[in-house]
Amino acid sequence: MPIVRTIGPAVASSAVAALATVEPDGPVRSTVGDAARTSRVGIPERGPHGEGREGNVALENTDQHEHEGLRLSKFHAPEIVFGPDSLREAAFAAVRLGARRPFVVTDPGVFEAGWPHELLRDLRDAGLNPRLWTDVTPNPKDHEIEAGYHEYIASGCDVVMGLGGGSVIDAAKGVALLASNGGRILDYEGIDRIANPIPPLIMMPSTSGTGADVSQFCIVTDTERHTKITIMGRALVPDVSVIDPRLLVTMPEWLNAATGLDALTHGIEAFVSLAHGPLTDVHALQAVSLVNSNLAHTMTAPGDTAARQAMAHAALEAGLAFTNAILGATHAMSHQVGGMLDLPHGVINGVLLPHVVRFNGAVTPERFVPIAQAMGLCGPGVPGDEAVDMVAAAVRKLGDEVGVPTGLGALGVTEEDIPRLAVLTLGDACLTTNPRPASVDQVETLFRAAL
Ligand SMILES: NC(=O)c1ccc[n+]([C@@H]2O[C@H](COP(=O)([O-])OP(=O)(O)OC[C@H]3O[C@@H](n4cnc5c(N)ncnc54)[C@H](O)[C@@H]3O)[C@@H](O)[C@H]2O)c1
Ligand SMILES: [Fe+2]
Questions:
Q1: Which InterPro entries match (predicted)?
Q2: Which of 42, 259, 276, 302 sits at 20 to 30 Å (Cα–Cα) from 312?
């Protein structure tokens, strides 16, 4: 019999912990109680507060109802250094954190693009003795992270630095986690299972989407079960995130499209999440607005630095929103497809998102009104069901503009895969905060609609 522990809001280091029951010996189960769900379903519709700075963000007013129903919430974030040429700040941050031998994680694609050379030069100029480790592949694998951990220990390193996309950042987090906790990386699946403090983390994202550089998530491919597992915990929030939009210009076009749609998915899922709140909503809507206004432009004008900076900003806002409000069914489903077929995470999200918007919109239509406003699709008075349709159609249109396929079939998913993918989805931590409970049959139906 597994010991069942319920984490209460007062001790939770993450919003989702307040909504989940964790079995220490098993995967995180989607066991959100009725009370938790009904407290968020039917949130009163609120009028717009004003216009955003860089888009038409509908900043909501927090009214009496919201405060009455407000749970204890925590907002965690790293120190953030943002702007062109900020990469050179990473070496100063390493010195400040006490590094002597920083362990620099990157991958062959980012290495080829040249960015690690700048970082290594700066680290050496600062008197440090960095160790470079590049053996990470997209959708980082359990055994790669364990190999990195052995390398970290063998080389006597002290601070972990990740320079790359979400895969590199997650691998760097995994190495740091194992460095002070030992064992196998898959043992940490679930919420708050990291007992010992981990080495300082400095992250430098080279894609504009995952938000892994500010998040409390680490996503790892379980190579035996062919799925992706989620490790979650306050300990995984990096100490410093250094966001230099220059790094985005070497992204191939497909990666720019994929990561931009990932950021859009983070914004939308965080805004409708059961764990959303006034502290996260503003970031979620700002992310939606920025992606909507800038992603397509970065595809047609890749050298436009203002649009790249806006996308880096979008990814950051989306990351701040979802690391605190958590995600939903799109990510729960996407992790299963990504683990099975080793496909780009953001592309899978882009295909699934319109279907999940319609599914969730059936129970929380009013949450989609501010999203539709942030996308410039309507004013404040539009009925919720119309906003749901507008958002779903606009997400699909953006997917078409940036070249994302319309169905999972084009990515290699078959009808025969669906039952297994649906069962695995129900065990994913991200489903816990989806605003609409989903049965295995409903998840199968969603996968079929997206095929
Ligand atoms: N931890 C989190 O909070 C979180 C959130 C969302 C997604 N993720 C994970 O992130 C991963 C996806 O990350 P991603 O979409 O950023 O891509 P990625 O890190 O998987 O990179 C994809 C490819 O692009 C190359 N690349 C990256 N940046 C480049 C650049 N600037 N120039 C040239 N090439 C570059 C890489 O070398 C790699 O080959 C998935 O595993 C996903 O599950 C994690
Ligand atoms: Fe994501």
A1: ADH_Fe/GldA, ADH_Fe_C, ADH_Fe_CS, Alcohol_dehydrogenase_Fe
A2: 276
Residue 74 has what pLDDT? Answer: 85
Residue 102 phi, psi dihedral angles, 5° rounding: -70, 140
11: pLDDT strictly greater than 70: no
Domain formed by 5-72+256-449, architecture: Up-down Bundle (1.20)
Q: Is the pLDDT of residue 105 over 80?
A: yes
Confidence category of residue 73, pLDDT binned at 50, 70, 90: confident
CATH of span 79-250: 3.40.50.1970
Tell whether ligand 1 has an atom less than 6 A from the beta carbon of residue 207.
yes
Written in H, E and C, the secondary structure of 264-333 is: HHHHHHHHHCCCCCHHHHHHHHHHHHHHHHHHHHHHHCCCCHHHHHHHHHHHHHHHHHHHHHCCCHHHHH
pLDDT band at 380 (very low <50, low <70, confident <90, very high): confident
CA 217, 299, 112: angle at the middle one, nearest 5? 65
At 300-336, the pLDDT tens digits run 999 999 999 999 999 999 999 999 999 999 999 999 9
How many percent of the chain have pLDDT more than 90? 81
Domain boundary assignment for the chain: 5-72+256-449, 79-250
Q: What's the rounded Cα separation, in Å, for the pair 410 and 408?
A: 5
In this chain, the answer to whether the domains covering 5-72+256-449 and 79-250 adopt an identical fold is no
State in Å: Cα 447 to ligand 1 middle.
Answer: 24
Is pTM, for the whole model, over 0.85?
yes
Checking if the pLDDT of 47 tops 70, the result is no
Ligand 1 centroid to Cα of residue 221, in Å, is 13
Neighbours of 155 (CB within 10 A): 14
Torsion of CA 175, 14, 364, 285, to 10 degrees: -70
Beta carbon of 212 within 6 Å of any ligand 1 atom: yes
CA of 243 to the centre of ligand 2 (A): 18
d(CA 48, CA 116): 44
Ligand 1 pocket residue status of 291, Cβ below 6 Å: no
